[in-house]
Amino acid sequence: MANATAAKATSIPPRFIRFMDAPGYLGMCRDEFNRTVRPNVREFPIGKQGVAFDRIELDQWADAYVESKSIEKAANQDNNRPRSECRGEPTGGKPWREKRSPASTRKVESGKSTKFSEASDFEKALALVTGKKQSST
Question: DSSP alpha helices (H): ranges in 28-106?
Fold first, then answer.
């Protein structure tokens, strides 16, 4: 029976929440807590250096915040719509939006430049470096 009482006592959340734990209690980072919550709730010292907040006051702030910031949604609204266009289309519709790229006007062959010129820039540079004279043909 003593073990059951001890277990029950530890499951009661503390009334005072230290500053280091308060942001996590509300599910936010310390900077956001300092910016939005801390100016609106009372804090008090614990020991020589500790600062704490009243859990009930944090809960009341959270309730008021949710009430003021929440967005009403239609009851039959699907909040988990797929992001993919394929799955988002109604049955019988096109599965994907057709995206056509403009056709290339140049013929591409493997290993050859698509730039039209009598002698490519590479060949001209190679001739300058190797010292070969360009042929007249």
Answer: 30-32, 55-69, 85-88
**Residue 37: how many CB atoms within 10 A of its CB?**
19
> Closest Cα to residue 84, out of 96, 75, 76?
96
Location of structure tokens 């004279």:
133
Instruction: Tell me the pLDDT tens digit for each residue of 3-59.
Output: 555 555 568 889 999 999 999 999 999 999 999 999 999 999 999 999 999 999 999
pLDDT digits (tens, 9 = 90+) for 48-104: 999 999 999 999 999 999 999 998 887 766 666 666 655 545 555 556 565 566 665
pTM check: above 0.70: no
- DSSP reduced 3-state for 43: strand
Strands 16-18 and 43-46: unpaired
User: Do 54 and 16 meet the contact criterion of CB atoms below 8 Å apart?
Assistant: yes
Strand order in the sheet with 16-18: 16-18, 50-54, 43-46
